[in-house]
Amino acid sequence: MNVRDALGRAAFARRIALDVLPRAAAELGRWQRRAAAIPNSELRRQAGASIAHKRFHAEGGSVFAALRPEWAPALVPLIVALQTISDYLDNLCDRSVSRDEADFRRLHQAMLDAVDERGPLHDYYALHPNRDDGGYLEALIEECRRYLRQLPGYPVVRPRVKRLVQLYSDLQVYKHGPAGRREPALAAWFQREGTRWPELRWWEFAAACGSTLGMFALFAAATRADLVDREADRLVEAYFPWICGLHILLDYLIDQAEDSAGGDLNLVSFYRDEAEKQARLLRFVREARARARAMPDGSFHENLVQGLPGLYLSDGKVKEQRMQSLAWRLLKAAGPASFGYFVWCRLRRYRNPAPPQPAPV
Description:
Layout: H1 3-35, H2 41-61, H3 72-95, H4 101-114, H5 136-148, H6 154-175, H7 179-193, H8 202-209, H9 213-221, H10 229-254, H11 256-262, H12 274-293, H13 298-313, H14 317-320, H15 324-334, H16 336-351
């Protein structure tokens, strides 16, 4: 690492620590207060839990504001609002008494509406057993739309964002289905939608679809009035599937024991053995890093890729599951800066421990 790179990373980390994260915390606090006022007790519980226990998703997504710091007042609330919708709906599908795919699809219409500022709103709870959220979900959608209207390049990226959101929504529908049907449904979905990436396994494609990072990268790009289709396409091709896939595979990697105990689908569990798992994860690290480096603003995108292993592998779940050796190899493949992010994230976790998990439904 040369001096210029080191100074660039230091400035990047400083912007995140001093500007982006405090903004994200303020936004999350605002939505947590709004969630606490939801009339329906079950929706109120799931909305509050989604913020309390998944806040690092919104904090991590908000780092895209460090790429365009002058746009942070718009990008941070936009990213926090969309990620809050995503996490809330994930909780509703994970913990719901419903196993109705039509219900899950109707709920996720909220994400599609959030990224299309021109269309109508819908009744998202029409098929759900709990309905009265006091306008919480619609308020989040309107927040997204308000800030999207401020991005001069959003008309260029809108169809690409909607495509990523549609893939995300499809994943949520299939992965929350009945245990005996969800794996065949996901494999068949890959056969229909994943033909462009024959080198992927179906669960790797599903992982890539589960990331919101590509959406947030497009939001940051849309701050440019001179953005053109070719640049937007290049950004999508870098993020999907490699950077997005790395993001969610790391998330599933550290959650293996938790998902096994809860009977939840875990996409990393489908590798045939530990050797294949390590080889494929290392490939995702290397592909993601190479594609990030080759983009305009490559230093920023490479920093983000290097931060992903630091963020996820600094979790105490790694030691609990005796994955330190695999973690070390992934951090090494991501580059020296990844170890720095690992230490930084460990310190943040120590200073800001996660609240206790709520009792299962």
